[in-house]
Amino acid sequence: MIKAQTIEMEHIYPHLGHSLKSLLEENKMSQRELSARTAVSSSYISSVIKGDRPISPGFACKLEQVFAISAEKIMFHQVERELKLIKEENYDLVEKDTKILSKIRPMLSLMIKSELPLDQIDEEQIVLNLRRFFKVSSLANLPALYRARAYPEPPSTRANLYLLATWALHCEILISAVESEVPFCLEKIVADKYSLQWNLSQYETTQEQKELLHPYGITLLLYPPFEGSIVNGFVKQTATGNLVLLVSSREKAGENIMPALRHLLAHIINGDISGTFIVFKTAENPADK
């Protein structure tokens, strides 16, 4: 089947060996003669004509002297053909990526609400948009990207890394839009930790909690609940020094985010703010039950 597909692609995007063979026939020149004129081995010329090897830039320059055809034009057509073949192969990967969509389905509706271009009915188009959005060649690369971004490993080896990576990358994009320039002050929050946690628990709205945290250089964002979530929140310091807490809200608790917020603050007070920090739900933590 691969062989048949290769033949079909060669018919659509013929390699330059066909053109070289035509040039030799038009000029009544043998491969041996071309070898003598260019000081290139006959075996190499034969392999180019058969399509087994590409035309090298050096050979293209020699062909320019023999046939008065621009070497740049030769190389352009060769690269153009190779890109077309690669793009055809990438479109074949779309079918595999559509199967991964089911693993990140809980996130898609949330990302659509963030005005991302993912509301198409066509799943193939959703895949292509997600690839561009996350800057990956395939959605299959998401677990590897999660690890490459130095995110902490989830507590369970059975965790859905596709969903976790999608959530984490989406969090980074949301955090990148934060404009606060108030720098985070660890000493101040450590000194006020008891009164701060008490005051936070007394406020009834998230907006009041946001205003209370602002002078400490902390921006509080709320992430909607989603199916399969194993996280309490996402912590990252911005380029301006501001610390962003993106807290996962609880569907059953409504606007009451104190359990998760308390969990995150405990990590911050312990100094867990280097790079990006993800706080997972744990069975041992009362706030996560």
Can you walk through the features of this model?
The chain is of the alpha+beta class and 289 residues long. The chain folds into three domains: 2-69, lambda repressor-like DNA-binding domains (434 Repressor (Amino-terminal Domain), Orthogonal Bundle), CATH 1.10.260.40; 94-176, no CATH class; 178-288, Zincin-like (2-Layer Sandwich), CATH 3.30.2010. The protein is 57% helix and 8% strand. The chain has helices at 2-12, 16-26, 31-38, 42-50, 57-67, 71-113, 123-134, 142-148, 161-176, 186-191, 193-202, 206-213, 258-269; strands at 218-223, 231-237, 243-248, 276-280. Strands 1-3-2-4 form a four-stranded mixed beta sheet, with helices on both faces. Strand 2 and strand 3 form a beta hairpin. The longest helix has 43 residues, at 71-113. It is elongated, with a radius of gyration of 29 Å.
